[in-house]
Amino acid sequence: MSVILWILAALAAISLSGWVFRLAGQKITGNSPRFRDMPFAVAFGYALAAAAVLGGVWLWFQPGATFFRWAVQGFVIFAIAAWLFRLLGRAVGTAGTRKLFRQMPLTASFGILVILIYAVLSIFAGVIAPYGQAEVFDQVNALPGGNAATGGNPDHLLGTDQIGRDLLSRLIYGAQNTVGIAFVTTCIAFFLGGSLGFLAATLQGWLDQVLSRAVDVLMAIPSLIFALLLMTIASAWAGSEKWLLTVYMVLIIAVIDSTRVFRLARAVGLNIVVMDYIEAAKLRGEGLRYLIFKEILPNAYAPLLAEFGLRFCFVFLTIASLSFLGVGIQPPLADWGTMVRDLAQFINFAAFSPLTAALPLMAAGAIALLTVAVNFVVDWMLHRTSGLKD
Amino acid sequence: MTDLLLKIRGLKIEGRSDEIWNPIINGVDLDLRKGEVLGLIGESGAGKSTIGLAGMGFTRDGVRISGGSVEFDGIDLVNASAEVKRKLLGSRIAYVAQSAAASFNPAHKLIDQHTEAPVQHGVMSRAESAADAVELYRRLRLPNPEEIGFRYPHQVSGGQLQRAMTAMAMSCRPDLIIFDEPTTALDVTTQIEVLASIRDIVEQFDTAAIYITHDLAVVAQMADRIKVLLKGDEVEEAETREMLSHPKEDYTKSLWAVREFKRPQKPAVAAGATPVVSVRKVTAAYGKVKVLQNVSFDIHEGRTVAVVGESGSGKSTTARCITGLLPPLSGSIQFDGVEMPADYRKRSKDQLRQVQMIYQMADTALNPRKSIGEIIGRPVQFYMGLRGREKRRRVEQLLDEIELPADQYFDRLPSELSGGQKQRIGIARALAAEPRFIICDEVTSALDQLVAEGILKLLARLQDDLKLSYMFITHDLATVRSIADEVVVMKEGKVIEQGPKAEMFRPPHHAYTDLLLSSVPEMDPDWLSNLLKERGVDNIGDAAVDKMG
Questions:
Q1: Among residues A360, A368, A353, which one has the least CA distance to residue A162?
Q2: Which Pfam families would you find in this protein's record (chain B) (predicted)?
């Protein structure tokens, strides 16, 4: 009960300060349009934001808020890095890319920077990682930081897991495995779903009906459970061949996700095939391949690219989920989903050693960071293409 | 002057593109007295709509008023607070948009949308406003005024919707209504109805109005005074009669002269000559609905046949039958005396090449992701088999033909072209196939008059040079007068009347042809009044069409 009263009191205080803020603004600026036409909701929003900032500052100085301080520090570091990256992009490159960076919001440059870092890490994982992903060391030391004075091991910057594998190396190799496989899977899903979707939109009739109903049936089954079911069957087929299971996983996720791509491609395609330029091309006597790849596809790039970004995140999360459940990428290959599962117990040590408890969050954070980054870039691209159309 | 309602002085408006503010309006003055109608005319991009909106103290997104003043009844609208504007808009100033279909909310009944503003502004209660709506519908001569309000926007025709919108604007008895091209999207017969009812109701309630349009003949009927705009500047302003009889500026004179373009009469076709295209007793249907019945006409070499009729009369369907997109149920299409397969998929490449099409909306007819060179180059490569440098030379030659400098336009995208230039690219694409017959589907109806005239002249020149035959689909009889050799009048899927142009424009006509001809607005300011007197108030537009059956 008292909690509700507290919340009500806080809301009232924020409303009041918002109102006072607007009134003061009107008085001080001599009734300028910004304050005069400001709706109360906006003033309330300003007050709420101010309250949140104050709360953050207070939390910063609390002794127990180690993770909060890390999060804020990380946020600031990334923001500065993104800003510097954008500055660099504005100064270097062709006239086209410089213009692109000039109009880019900070979120988008952050997203691009993160994606670039991930790409470099996954491509050059073998060179960058200090040890192999399956290399086991005798000395198990789950204390990251590498500070010998507090009991860490300088050889393993992030420490090791329970059986003594270097975590930093596994995190880097995880980028290669998880991100690489997700990328391949998304590409297959797009090739399948995209080409069939455009085909259905162009030809229509019975082919469209058959494909669309088949997709409806596939989409009616919850995707994660469906994938789990199929993976169980696949693991029986694969037997002891671990790599075969990974191939099956790629195909299964690609097919399940291609249904979503099919829907989008068909909907976008239907809007394009009614255009007069498609009619003109048909009357010219053009073949199906020319129609789809030369007339329809270039006009569908924007929505498809946006969907690619989103779909990539979902595929990536599905792989991580399957690995977490034990049917995805198989050990000893490093994978972020598996890492979260394996290190999960370390959370229990949070009260004694926050550093150790942070270990499973590293892999989880790597997943979260990439997802956020990709979405920022996708948002920006969507905004740009929709803006161009107007 | 105490009866001055709207006073605009030195209005400057800027629009933002690529981070820079570009001027749209460079200092325009405007005075509007109570109960007066001012016509604003100019081509697209002249800033007509922008000024109209500024008269409400409103600017579109990315546009700002950078200087000057807008005063409505003594209230400074540029610096007015949102609160003050909210009270004025809808109750004292109302707006009627070009597309009523896009401006009504499709999810609510007309009367619910009508009563919203009066209730919101506290002018009337909901019941009073609903009763008033019926009264307004009656005065605007809508059919079934008691019931029409309970329909949804998609259940009434375009002309009726435009009048319902006018009624909605009238709902609070505003002092000023801004009409932004309210009849541009309508057929001639429907347009008359809307014009007459708008004019009546504005007179009855002594409302001041700004009437924005690019059609001179329309503005001549509606306005007391006319202001001509060009690229954000005022060209001249005068009383309507004065302006029509003695335009001062060259630009105004050129606007007036557009309607003068006429081609010389061609000699009659030799008897027994084989027509290029012959439509023989074609009957066609979409599903079970018959849209064409027994349509027959011939198109001879080097001739233009104009197909006229209002929307839904089957003009474009005839074109679809000729191109083979809609195989007819019965009847045939002959090319050079040889019957063509009904379905375009069964026609040979050469048959497809001979029949080309130019579309109404150049925006949707050109692939926005392809450069001009690619768009024109494709048929050159596809039909003629030219590649590389030869292809490029041919495309440049074609661009030359349509009077666009090749080096500047070859690599541009359609979005970087104006409407008239896009339409020229559409023509070049059709020419690239080196056809003998081109279907022009309302090619000038989306263009300004000056630009449209340029396109018509280009088509006429190409016809003389290349011995092309045109089928010219249009609802604009002024265009027919200027370019056609023969005219086919269609109504409800049937050919009502056909013959050489000279005969068609000379009485006696078929009753429907007569109605179409007399519905085309003329520059004479008394034309609408005289027409209404002649036909009787209840016998105009759709009503007249219905009566004819």
A1: A360
A2: ABC_tran, oligo_HPY
Those residues with Cβ within 8 angstroms of residue B450's Cβ, 6 or more apart along the chain or in another chain: B43, B254, B255, B258
**A280/B357 Cβ within 8 A:** yes
Q: Does some domain include residue A127? A: no
- Which of B377, B200, B242 lies closest to B228 in space, CA to CA? B242
Is the separation of the CB atoms in A325 and B422 below 8 Å?
Answer: no
B164-179: per-residue pLDDT in tens? 888 888 888 888 889 8
Task: Give the CATH number of the domain where residue A185 resides.
Answer: 1.10.3720.10
The reply to whether B415 and B373 lie within a common domain is yes
The edge-to-edge listing of strands for the beta sheet with B338-339 is: B289-299, B277-286, B330-335, B338-339
Tokens of A85: 């990256």
**Residue in B352, B369, B379 nearest the CB of A298:** B369
Query: Within this chain, do residues B213 and B329 fall inside the same structural domain, yes or no?
Result: no
| CB proximity list for B128: less than 8 A, separation 6 or greater | B118
Helix (H) or strand (E) holding A341: helix A336-343
The span from the CA of B165 to the CA of A286, in Å, is 45
Are the C-beta atoms of B109 and B148 separated by less than 8 Å?
Answer: no
Interface pTM (ipTM) of the complex? 0.76
Chain B nearest-CA distance from A275, in A, is 6
The residue assigned the tokens 């890492």 is A339
CA distance A265 to chain B (A): 17
Least CB-CB distance to A285: which of B325, B352, B361? Answer: B352
B247 lies in the same domain as B292: no
Domain that holds residue A345: 167-389
Specify the range with the lowest mean pLDDT, choosing from A114-123, A203-212, A264-273, A351-360: A351-360
Beta bridge partners of B282: B295
State yes or no: pLDDT of A106 exceeds 80: yes
CB B450 within 8 A of CB B43: yes
- A-to-B residue pairs, Cβ atoms closer than 8 angstroms: 54
pLDDT in tens, B433-490: 889 999 998 888 777 777 888 888 888 888 888 889 999 998 777 788 888 888 898 8
B91 and B9 within one domain? yes
A275 with B364: Cβ contact below 8 A: yes
Write down which residue in B200, B229, B259 finishes a domain: B259
**Domains held by chain A: number:** 2
Domain, as residue range, for B26: 4-99+175-259
Q: Are residues B368 and A282, on separate chains, in Cβ contact within 8 Å?
A: no
| 3-class DSSP string for A45-83 | HHHHHHHHHHHHHHHHCCCCCHHHHHHHHHHHHHHHHHH
Q: Taking each helix axis from N to C terminus, what angle separates A276-284 and B372-384, rounded to the nearest 10 degrees?
A: 20
